[in-house]
Design a protein that fits this description.
Structural class: alpha/beta
Number of helices: 23
Strand order of the largest sheet: 3-2-4-5-7
Mean pLDDT: 85
Helix content: 40-55%
Distance between the termini: 165 Å
Radius of gyration: 69 Å
Bound molecules: adenosine-5'-diphosphate
Low-confidence stretches: 1-23
Strand content: 15-25%
Length: 745
């Protein structure tokens, strides 16, 4: 029974299902695999390994494989096939072969012709046979197989993906019958490309000429290699060995159509995997062994093409892997450090990354620190220049009061170098009388960081002292701790001198004023002196009269003498008071009892007031003491009372009154008021009252109130004028209070 080769693609699906779902079956069978060539050829080797693996895993190892490498293309001429047939007959005489797997067309031809001699009952499964090899042939019913359809166009398309700038294709093939059949098939299939690209078929050349042609090829060519079993000179070749020579000689990348050439120098191609093919053949043989009728299993269409690429050749020709389809199988990829030592690489790169980051951070830090340092230097230089050109002595001290910085003017002033000046306390430059005051100012700045102001005398390079006004601010550390002071000193010697002069002039003026006041009070003074002197005189007369009696009453004389003594004392005190007013004496402050002060005042002005028919009333009833220089306080009160006398003089009789009293007092201060019923103060006069030389009197000097205010303020008090509601004026002055127990007046 025989049948014609049909194209039953549908059955392939069945086999595929079998192959996927096939469980392990316990079949005991002998399978003879006939290779047309030798299994040492790479394609057949891959086929054989896969076939054996598939049998073994699908049958629990109960299938016995026999293999024959027939080497037909090398030895197939003459009567070799017949001798081989006999050999096999003898060899397998006692072995029943259940299935013969014939690999490649020549093996199929051999088994079909001679198989009855060594495997008479065997079913036949072929593999690696191209459909065109079966074209028009009728296969017996016990034969089936898997086809290996060689296709060329997909590889050409692959080459164009990898080399889009290709201008020509060179097809290389041999002259054996097999070679020629492949070339014819390729020409048919590649005809559409010939319209777009230059196509050359180098298929008739002897090998040396072929290689020479390939060496001359421009780089933008693509070489397509099918097979060379025999070259143009009739020399036999093994195709994969020929592939090696061709790929070595070619100046352009070489592509192939079967995977056995991969590793021989070709870039790769869209090709069958002979390994897969072996597995398919084994599955089909298993199906037959399990009882499937080969007549019901027509030859199977081949499985899909696979893109197989030799990555070393990609590198050699500089082709881009990205251009490949995603399912491309890459062979001979050089193992990368990553694939070999993933962990170590991760660890090392992590360490390196961290290290790099740290180095980068350090570099950034260093550069920003350098920038900051240079900015700091710049700013320091700027500050130093400013400090050195400033017209003042600038200094900076630490918490221990030692200098940490002085400017040029300081060094010029003191004559010290910066080495000599720094690390010393600046108190050493001070006038001995000012050291305590400056130390106190330093101490105060610890409590109030904004309070460092002191006037002191600083020693100059020539040993003389000049007055300086030194001000400073506390420096605080980043933590907020006291870090010392920064400040400056300006020379105020001239101002100081002017002030001293002014003070001298003032006190001279005050003295003049006192003398003038005394002039006005001459009558009063005379009255003061006349009264005790008159009393002394009349008392002395009275004493004489008592002593002139025959029996003088001595105790009367005694009383008279005591009166004389008192009057003499009173006159002496008056003279003493006048002298002290007239005298230029230094200011001494002490507690003064206002009661006594008012009494003295009253005595001084009494004669004058009486003469002018003015009533002067003083009242220190509550009792109060002030801290004052008594002479100056008396001068102040005298000035105010004398002005009041002038103010009330023009008033009608009976309306001329002056009251001197303590208006208010507490622990801190005492307010004294001198009120009168005089003409009062006109609004335009009020602002000018205390100005020097302002007077509304024909013979006035205009210095009384000015001096009065100076004295009051020098004592830490204040003075102002008020207008009385009922007319007249009241002059008020506050004065620092003192404890009366210490009163000495
Ligand atoms: P003088 O008494 O020489 O004029 P003063 O400085 O003592 O200088 O007084 C300045 C001016 O203030 C006086 O000329 C007067 O106009 C005014 N004055 C002073 N005391 C009184 C007072 N009690 N009532 C009204 N005016 C006064």
């Amino acid at each position: 029974m025989s049948r014609t080769f049909p194209s039953l693609l549908t059955v392939f699906a069945g086999i595929a299902l079998f192959s996927l779902a096939a469980p392990c079956v316990a079949i005991a069978a002998n399978v003879l695999v006939l290779y047309d060539e030798r299994r040492e050829l790479p394609g057949l080797s891959a086929f054989d390994s896969s076939l054996a693996r598939t049998f073994s895993s699908a049958s629990s190892g109960s299938i016995v494989l026999y293999r024959e490498d027939m080497d037909l293309s090398r030895l197939g001429s003459g009567d070799y096939p017949l001798r081989l047939r006999d050999h096999l007959r003898i060899k397998y005489a006692d072995t029943k072969i259940d299935v013969v797997v014939a690999v490649m067309g020549p093996a199929l031809d051999f088994v079909l012709r001679y198989g009855g001699a060594f495997a008479p009952e065997a079913l036949i499964v072929f593999a690696g046979v191209d459909p065109w090899e079966l074209h028009g042939r009728v296969l017996p019913e016990h034969v089936t197989g898997v086809l290996l359809e060689r296709r060329f166009a997909p590889t050409v398309e692959l080459a164009l993906r990898l080399q889009p700038k290709t201008r020509r294709f060179v097809f290389v093939g041999g002259t054996s019958e097999f070679d020629r059949r492949l070339i014819e098939q390729a020409k048919d299939e590649l005809r559409p490309f010939e319209q777009r690209y230059e196509f050359r078929y180098l298929t008739e050349l002897p090998m040396p000429a072929l290689l020479a042609e390939l060496r001359r090829l421009p780089r933008d060519s693509v070489v397509l290699y099918s097979t060379i079993f025999r070259d143009g000179a009739g020399t036999a070749f093994v195709p994969h060995v020929a592939a090696q020579s061709i790929t070595a000689a070619s100046n352009a990348p070489v592509y192939g159509f079967v995977d056995q050439f991969v590793g021989r120098g070709i870039v790769g191609g869209r090709m069958y995997s002979l390994a897969e093919h072996g597995a398919e053949a084994a599955h089909l043989a298993m199906a037959v062994l399990e009882g499937s009728d080969p007549a019901g299993l027509p030859p199977q269409s081949p499985s899909n093409l696979t893109t197989i690429i030799d990555s070393r050749q990609l590198d050699r020709w500089g082709l881009r892997e990205e251009a490949l389809p995603p399912d491309a199988v890459m062979l001979n990829r050089q193992p990368t450090l990553w694939s070999q030592h993933k962990r170590e690489v991760v660890a090392a790169s992590s360490i390196l990354s961290i290290q790099a980051l740290m180095i980068a951070a350090l570099l950034v830090q260093r550069s920003s620190r350098r920038r900051a340092e240079s900015k700091l230097r710049e700013s320091e230089n700027r500050l130093r220049t400013m400090a050195d050109t400033a017209p003042a002595l600038i200094w900076m001290s630490g918490p221990d009061r030692r200098f940490v910085f002085v400017n040029k003017m300081w060094m010029d002033y003191t004559g010290l170098s910066s080495e000599d000046a720094l690390d010393k306390t600046w108190l050493g430059q001070l006038h001995p009388d000012d050291v305590t005051r400056c130390s106190e100012a330093f101490d105060r700045s610890l409590i109030d960081p904004h309070d460092f102001t002191v006037e002191c005398r600083l020693r100059r390079y020539d040993g003389t002292y000049r007055w300086m006004l030194c001000t400073g601010l506390a420096r605080l550390s980043l933590k907020g701790d006291y870090a010392g002071l920064v400040g400056c000193c300006t020379d105020i010697s001239e101002r100081k001198e002017t002030e001293l002069q002014l003070q001298r002039h003032r006190s001279e003026l005050a003295h003049m004023n006192r003398i003038a006041t005394m002039g006005e009070l001459t009558a009063s003074v005379a009255h003061e002196l006349c009264q005790p002197l008159g009393a002394i005189l009349s008392n002395a007369g009275a004493a004489g009269m008592v002593l002139g009696k025959t029996s003088p009453a001595l105790h009367e004389v005694q009383e008279i003498l005591e009166d004389i003594q008192k009057d003499a004392q009173r006159a002496g005190e008056t003279i003493h008071r006048i002298r002290s007013i007239m005298r230029k004496q230094s200011v001494t402050r002490r507690p003064v009892d206002l009661k006594g002060m008012f009494k003295d005042l009253h005595r001084l002005v009494d004669a004058e007031a009486t003469a002018r028919r003015i009533m002067v009333h003083s009242d220190a009833a509550g009792g109060a003491c002030v801290l004052a220089d008594p002479v100056q306080l008396q001068q102040v009160l005298l000035n105010l009372v004398l002005n009041a006398l002038d103010a009330v003089s023009a008033r009608p009789d009976g309306d001329r009154r002056i009251v001197v009293c303590v208006r208010d007092s507490d622990d801190q201060s005492v307010t004294i008021a001198v009120a009168d019923t005089g003409h009062g103060i006109a609004p335009d006069v009020r602002p000018k009252l205390f100005q020097p030389f302002y007077t509304t009197k024909r013979e006035g000097l205009g210095m009384g109130l000015s001096i009065t205010r100076t004295i009051v303020e020098a004592h830490g008090g204040s003075i102002w004028a008020e207008s009385n509601e009922a007319g007249g004026a009241t002059f008020c002055l506050t004065w620092p209070a003192a404890a009366c127990s210490l009163s000495l007046s």
